[in-house]
Design brief:
Helices cover 47% and strands 16% of the residues. The protein has a six-stranded mixed sheet with strand order 7-6-8-5-9-11, with helices on both faces. The protein has a five-stranded mixed sheet with strand order 2-1-3-10-4, sandwiched between helices.
């Protein structure tokens, strides 16, 4: 037994001596740092590469990679390169991508109907009223609800306020009667179209141009930026500046993935998102103004600015959708938004 212990001690001494020799002969071997592969974040979205959303994503990428000292690599996939808008949320839940910036309307079909409050026509008078929600307590509460679906909400990025377009003049809600109108999946937007007598047609964003150009649908609603970057103005003879609804995005990630990041990396990414958000909103405002100027200059679409009387009729026709959809999105939520934005209760 004693002989065995002596042999074990000798073996340990020999191993230690060999290790010392290797380290002295190859100091670089001893000092070589462990190189970790960067965390890859695939950021997928459906907007065009030249759009304000793409520019915002590129801004975020630059900040994120700088603030993490290269420990994170952001890969951007615009224009539905990986997934269409109907597929991307499932891909995120499954971990096939790590970040998205979908329209907030997409969360209604996912089962979080409260987000469809953003689709209610004329619920926000302007960007100032909107910011009281997206930058306040109500907006944060809505983002927190995404955790029940395995997602985490990180920020809101604006697109803008929408207009209606078709191949016939739209001077009043009655002019929408019988028109097939492309919409994104939202029961609130569907109800809005029915309120005008339109025929809502749910369709992926990437399919809208072809449907408009081929006559599968007659018209649609969108922001100037989307109408311009997707070239919808080339196949829509008329548009009315109703500014009836808001279109915005929620920057989101897979909750399990996000929670699993090292705390300092997660903090750096959150900083990058926080600093990108006002830039993203500035990009959107700038692009909507540029888009309107370019589309008007092209002469392909006639744009109509409603008179005060016409605008009053649009509001009168569409705001009853608030009460109609209260059971779906939440009466209390609607009333809280009224209170926060200073809007009179219906």
């Amino acid at each position: 037994m004693r002989l065995i212990r002596v042999r074990q001690i000798r073996l340990r001494l020999i191993r230690a001596a060999i290790a010392a020799l290797l380290l002295s002969a190859c100091p670089a071997f001893a000092e070589a740092p462990v190189v970790m592969a960067p965390v890859v974040i695939k950021f997928s979205h459906v907007a065009a590469p030249q759009s304000h959303k793409s520019r915002a994503a590129e801004h975020f990428k630059a900040l994120a990679e700088r603030y993490t000292n290269g420990r994170v690599r952001i890969e951007l996939y615009p224009n539905s390169q990986l997934y269409k808008d109907k597929e991307e949320l499932e891909a995120l839940q499954l971990g096939a991508v790590q970040m998205l910036a979908p329209s907030v309307s997409k969360f209604g079909p996912l089962g979080i109907r409260a987000f469809e409050v953003f689709d209610l026509p004329y619920i926000f008078a302007d960007y100032e009223a909107l910011a009281k929600i997206t930058e306040g307590e109500i907006g944060r509460e809505l983002l927190d609800r995404l955790q029940s679906k395995g997602l985490i909400g990180l920020a809101y990025w604006n697109n803008g306020f929408k207009m209606l377009s078709a191949n016939a003049p739209l001077r009043s809600p009655d002019d929408v009667l019988g028109l097939k109108m492309r919409i994104q999946a939202s029961k609130v937007i569907e109800a809005q179209m029915w309120a005008m007598g339109g025929l809502p047609q749910v369709m992926a964003f990437s399919e809208a141009y072809h449907a408009l150009s081929s006559g599968v649908v007659d018209g649609t609603e969108n922001t100037p930026a989307n109408m311009y970057t997707q070239k919808m103005y080339e196949v829509q003879a008329h548009a009315t500046m109703t500014h009836h609804g808001y279109l915005g995005y929620a920057v989101i990630s897979n909750h399990k993935f996000w929670a699993g990041l090292p705390a300092d990396v997660r903090a750096a990414l959150e900083r990058a998102i926080a600093e990108t958000t006002p830039v993203a909103n500035a990009f959107a405002l700038e692009e909507n103004e540029h888009a309107m100027a370019e589309m008007k200059a092209s002469g392909r679409t006639t744009f109509h600015e409603p008179t005060p009387a016409e605008r009053a009729l649009w509001i009168e026709t569409l705001t009853p959708v608030h009460d109609e959809m209260a059971g779906r999105v939440g009466r209390d939520l609607i009333d809280r938004i009224y209170a926060a934005t200073g809007r009179a209760t219906q």
